[in-house]
């Protein structure tokens, strides 16, 4: 909404020195979004005067028509002699009054005017167009003024060229601010000044002599006012002040009748429509359209109507889209000269429509036909229904004043029964919402300022004004009090939430895992939980793999990734590929998050109500419709795990590093993993480990780790020998002790014993390690595999596994006999379970 400051002053007596910037600050403090303050006429310097064209000489021999004009500018040039001016415009003739800028003046944009020779003549100034004066973007021709203005008079004041215009972004809940009346009310409140309400007019009572109107849909149209004006002068034009106000507000002058309806709409916020009465067949009606009906609107487009469209009709059919745009067959006719008589003909009788239409109906019609208008913008945000009669009266008065018309005595007014909206509000409710004590007097005063009627003491009964349909509940009223008292006056206080119960065990495990992996050198990479099924093909997953049972989204962000992930690896490997492509070759990334595993047994999700809180049963039914969402952790590695340097060669990542990442995660849950060889896509079948944990004495699979299959790395564009680990945290939590104890630092010495066991080449080192742990008993503090050897000395199909065993007692120094006994017991159990023999024995 563009608000000229000069127009605003008609309704509010602002202080004389108050600028647009000052008003902007006040309105912003009151909660309005004033985006800019445009300075009209900035840089304009006179003399800029009215001139009368005395003579026109057509200059020949140029590429375009050029005219050499003599213009009377009175005594404005100091001599009284006519000014000689070269001009290329063709839309004026001898005797016309025009706008002339004389040498020494300066137009907006720093364009200085001087006498200069052009087209073989000396031009002593310039005849101006609207665009050259910054009035509009019209380049078609120069400004032709009405004949009553005296030559030599000041055109700057006449054309109101110097002004300030506030550009206000009106939010959807403040439709009343799409009018000068609404902005003036907010300004008056901000300055604590009285308001001259332009809607306070004497309106005649409705009678039976008005133009006949039939409203068949009182819900879509709850108020319809019709007035008739006859005897209009078809040659009457909009006065300059009216045109300038429309231009400053961002509208283009069209014709007097149309300009007046637009002016009243801007003034009062009530959209109006003027019909040429001679083009209306019978009574005006308001109804829903018949599906397939057609209407040609004022923009010249034929539209096929929908059964939900609210239309204005006569006996011939639809003549307008209610609240959106009128029809072309009843529009006001432009004044034209009759070819036979030369007499000017045009519309001389008009019917004024001022109605109130349902906001939802107008909004849907405008969107359905992709036809947004100034009227629809206001109706869909809420128009004051009580202003319809005043707007119609204001339009009639202006038509009588400016077009010489006569107002007929008939007044048609159809009103559907309705009651004002009332809200019960505790007087201290705004205090509780804001955390500030305003007091009853302040609350009542502020609500009365916005137009409410307030009654009561401790509990206030508030009747909302008709122009504020956005005020529907106590919180809306509290917001009005708070914004008018000033948001800047609200104290900055921190909320005091009740004490919580801390993190759940699941949340603690999630955080511990993230810290542990970050401490081990991994970098967290957060990815979107969306995948495309193409990546599952690249993983080489079998058709019956449960990871292919994805949950599809109805409205995915990308058509390439329309499903929710069933594994964390696609996102992590994509991040690894991007970083590798940008020059980072030694990478270790991790992520913790949810995956989504559909079982196929989920019931359809019900649509919950929005007017009340769902019941516990409805929430439970909605939860049952969700897929299973286990929490997982995953890590991917590529390049060197240890960098090369003067100390020696680097160590490339291997499947063992991926397995160790799984152990790091498991230790945070207090779980010792059981590692066995496995075959699982997308891992290499010979370098894939199954990560198992004991739950109630039973081994369960919690994850996999190892090196990715070469065809997978090739399909995904990954570095060779890329390794990955994925593990389910929820299963680890069930297998864990629930509490991770800090390591105990013993004061007694440790005893180290090394054993080298020869086993079959197919025996997993993890089985040997498990047997050694069980055999060594409680005195074993730790065990580490430090060497694997194969060779002719051992024989074909054999390998040697060398372990370092650390023994320590918590309460004493171990004797040599105790250490030897524990070691021998460990070897014996390993020999019994895996067939191991001591190397060299």
TrEMBL record:
Cofactor(s) named in the record: Mg(2+)
Residue intervals of the TRNA-binding domain: 42-156
Annotated transmembrane regions: none
Pfam name, any one: B5
Keyword hit for Ligase: yes
Cofactor-binding details, from the entry: Binds 2 magnesium ions per tetramer.
Localization in the cell: Cytoplasm
Main location: cytoplasm
Reactions performed catalytically: tRNA(Phe) + L-phenylalanine + ATP = L-phenylalanyl-tRNA(Phe) + AMP + diphosphate + H(+)
Cross-referenced InterPro entries: aa-tRNA-synth_II/BPL/LPL (IPR045864), B3/B4_tRNA-bd (IPR005146), DNA-bd_dom_put_sf (IPR009061), Fdx_antiC-bd (IPR005121), Fdx_antiC-bd_sf (IPR036690), NA-bd_OB-fold (IPR012340), Phe-tRNA-ligase_IIc_bsu (IPR045060), Phe-tRNA-ligase_IIc_bsu_bact (IPR004532)
PROSITE patterns xref list: B5 (PS51483), FDX_ACB (PS51447), TRBD (PS50886)
Residue ranges of domain B5 in the record: 418-492
This protein's UniProt keywords: Aminoacyl-tRNA synthetase, ATP-binding, Cytoplasm, Ligase, Magnesium, Metal-binding, Nucleotide-binding, Protein biosynthesis, RNA-binding, tRNA-binding
Domain FDX-ACB: 746-839
Binding site for Mg(2+): 470, 476, 479-480
UniProt key word Membrane: no
Coiled-coil segments: none
GO molecular function annotation: phenylalanine-tRNA ligase activity
Superkingdom assignment: Bacteria
EC number assigned by the record: 6.1.1.20
Entries under NCBIfam families matching the protein: pheT_bact (TIGR00472)
Recorded family membership: Belongs to the phenylalanyl-tRNA synthetase beta subunit family. Type 1 subfamily.
Assembly description: Tetramer of two alpha and two beta subunits.
Protein name: Phenylalanine--tRNA ligase beta subunit
